[in-house]
Each structure stands twice: as C-alpha cells, then as structure tokens.
Amino acid sequence: RDRGRRGGGRVHKKAAPPSTSPLDGTGRPPPPHKSTNQQDPRPERDLTFRVLAMLPPALCVTLLAAACALWPPAVRAASCEPVRIPLCRSMPWNMTKMPNHLHHSTQDNAVLAIEQFEGLLGTGCSPDLLFFLCAMYAPICTIDFQHEPIKPCKAVCERAKSGCEPVMKRYNHSWPDSLDCSELPLYDRGVCISPEAIVKAEGPDPYNPDLSRCTPESSPDSPMDSNSFHCRGPNAGCKCKTVKMNLKTYLRNNYNYVIRARVREVRNRGLEPTAVVEVKEVLKSSLVNIPKETQTLYYSSSCLCPPLAPGEEYIIMGYENEERSRLLLIESSIAQKWKDKMGRKVKRWDVVLQGKSTTAMRRGRP
C-alpha cells in the first residue's frame, strides 16, 4: 500500500489488462501509455491560460501578434504565390495571396472576375483604376511583414471611383458594392498601399526604368527589365491574344474608331505606354475628333497589345475616351497590316452594325 502512495495521499489502483477491443467502455480509444518519468504538461498549460485570462484583451492580442512574428519565414510565406493574373503583371509586386479581398480562393477565379473591368480600363477613366483593382484581386503578399494580405488605401479607391463611376453610370452601372471605399483603411491610420507610397529599396523602378543602364543600342521603346539590369523589348514577357478581324468580331466589339495609320514610334515608359501614329484615313469615329495628322494612342497596360511595329502601316480599331479626348488600345483592339480591301470591308460591316442598332431600337419601343 505504501509503495502505491504519492504526495497527495491517493492510492493508485493496479492497471487493468488491455482490452482486446480498440475502444474501451466509453467508446473512445484508450489513452496512450505514459512513462512514469514523463512530466504531465497540463499544469503548466493551465497556468499559462490563467495568466492570459488575467491580462487586458489588448495586451493579449499584442502578445499573440508578437508570437506569430516569431514563426519561421518558411511557415509565414507558405501561402504567398507568384502573380499570374495577366492584368496585374505590370504591378510593382510579384507575389500575392489567396483568398483575396474579394474572397476568391484561387487566381483562376480572380482572373474571371477582374476581366469584367477590361472595358472600363480601356476608357482610361482613372490612372489609379488598374492599381486599385490589382490590390484587391491580387493583393501584395510580403514574406516579412504581416500574415494577411495588404489592402489598398481608401484614397486610391476614391480616386478610381470618382474618375470611373461617371463612365459606368452612362451605361446604367454603378460602382460595385464589393469595392466599397469606406471599408478600406486611411493611409495615416492603418496599413495600406498606394502608388505614391511605393519606394524602391534596391534595383530599378518598374514604373520609371533607368534607361542609362541599358546598352547603347537600346532605346526608350526597349526599357530595362524591372527584375534585372538587362534591356528588353517592349513586349517581353507578354502574350497578346489574337483577335480575328471579321464581321462577327466587329459586331461584337463595336469599336469607337477605325483608322488607317503609319506607326512612328512606340513608347513603353511609366504608367502610360503609348503609340505615336500618323493618321492616313479615318474610316470611323464616334466621340473624339480624329484629324489626319499625328495622333497618340494610349495602351491600357504595359503589355503592348495589340503589338505595333514602327514604320509599318496598319488598320487599327479601338475605343475612345470622350472626357480626355483619347484614342485607346486595349487587348480586344485590332491592329493588322494595311491592305487596300480592308477599308471597303469596314464600311460594309459598319452598315450591318448600323442596321442591327436600328432594329434593336425599334424592338425596344413600346
């Protein structure tokens, strides 16, 4: 009896022989056998919880955040992944995290959702729109900063909204509730990102490449790669989808302008890549006056799609930004080398398009 006693005066009964069943009488698996030399960690764990319970809630949160910061980088960075959304590859970050701020679990889902804004981006309604959308759909994921993806600043959202909502209202759409600016943090009161707040630590700035580092034969049309000290062509790393020039495409896309033009130069610098062209013939225009002289076409992203080669003559189909009197090129625009029969084709297609529009208007009348 004395050998069975412990400090608390309790008598430990002799252990029962192991059951042949994997479950004991309670329906639960038997506990694993403990060595008599193994110390039970429960008293220390219970003491830890009792100490935390006595601390103020704010201090508990601080302690937990500090504990998370001590996790190994490999653990914290496990959910960061390379940005694969085509529209966001020009952003000054290359790692993102899912789910994003719109609750898309994968980038494949995010691609399908962000594509609905391609037309709005093509209008050039706000220089902040693409940055804001990418910060929401492909949020920056930093290994050494915080566990959750970083949100865009409220001011970035408000600038994008003020520039683009009037355009959306013209087509009976309003700013999406999912992009509500009031839910985003202020720059001076929380953690958020904005274009003007991004400062390069080392290496070239992807928005303003240092062309002096390029070789003498390079030009402003072939800026330095943002990930190295090598120069690249204007469309390196980009893959433009082929848009077929036919009646079906013309009717579906309903381009604002169609011109015949010779390309003088293509500039891929800063936030607004452009193509300078000499207009030879205006086959169609809608909202912007297009004189037969040198014009600037504005690309919607740093991927110059459709691609244009200086010195070549093209038929170009795209969209217009009436408020800023700009001719726009987006991924669904068409640029094909000029052939004489193309002008006649477009005029025939435009007659068909006008007929369809008239028929639709008549059907819509009460």
From TrEMBL:
Residues 75-195 form the FZ domain. SUPFAM superfamilies: Frizzled cysteine-rich domain, TIMP-like. Signal peptide: none annotated. Soluble frizzled-related proteins (sFRPS) function as modulators of Wnt signaling through direct interaction with Wnts. They have a role in regulating cell growth and differentiation in specific cell types. SFRP3/FRZB appears to be involved in limb skeletogenesis. Antagonist of Wnt8 signaling. Regulates chondrocyte maturation and long bone development. Residues 1-15 have a biased composition (Basic residues). It comes from Oryzias javanicus. One of its GO terms (cellular component) is extracellular space. It is found in: Secreted. Belongs to the secreted frizzled-related protein (sFRP) family. Its main location: secreted. PROSITE patterns: FZ, NTR. GO terms for biological process: canonical Wnt signaling pathway; cell differentiation; negative regulation of canonical Wnt signaling pathway; non-canonical Wnt signaling pathway; regulation of cell differentiation; system development. Residues 1-43 are annotated as: Disordered. Residues 238-358 form the NTR domain. This is Secreted frizzled-related protein 3. Disulfide bonds join 80-141, 88-134, 157-181. GO terms for molecular function: Wnt-protein binding. Coiled coil: none annotated. Keywords: Developmental protein, Differentiation, Disulfide bond, Glycoprotein, Secreted, Signal, Wnt signaling pathway.
